[in-house]
Amino acid sequence: MITIIEKGASSEKIRLALKKRPVKIKSPDLKKYCGSISLKEDPLKMQKKWRDEWE
Questions:
Q1: Residues 12, 13, 17, 18: what is their CA dihedral angle, to the nearest 10 degrees?
Q2: Are 2 and 16 in contact (CB under 8 A)?
Q3: In b/e form, how buried is each residue of 37-47, taking b as 16+ CB within 10 angstroms?
Q4: What is the spatial distance between Cα 18 and Cα 5, in angstroms, rounded to a whole number?
């Protein structure tokens, strides 16, 4: 959602516009995916190899 505040708007108008915003939705818990994949090669070495492919 986009809230448009006009230049020179009073602080009361700004407060009202901000109160009309919807409540934040909880983000999914991404910590459950931490460590879920196992790699046979060092991730930094993989990244350097992938970057060198462009040259």
A1: -30
A2: no
A3: eeeeeeeeeee
A4: 10
Residue type at position 53: E
3-state DSSP assignment of residue 32? helix
Q: What is the pLDDT of residues 8-48, one digit of tens each?
A: 999 999 888 888 887 777 888 888 888 888 889 999 999 99
pTM of the model: 0.37
Tokens of 40: 């046979």
Residue the block writes with tokens 């986009």: 2
DSSP label at 3?
A: -
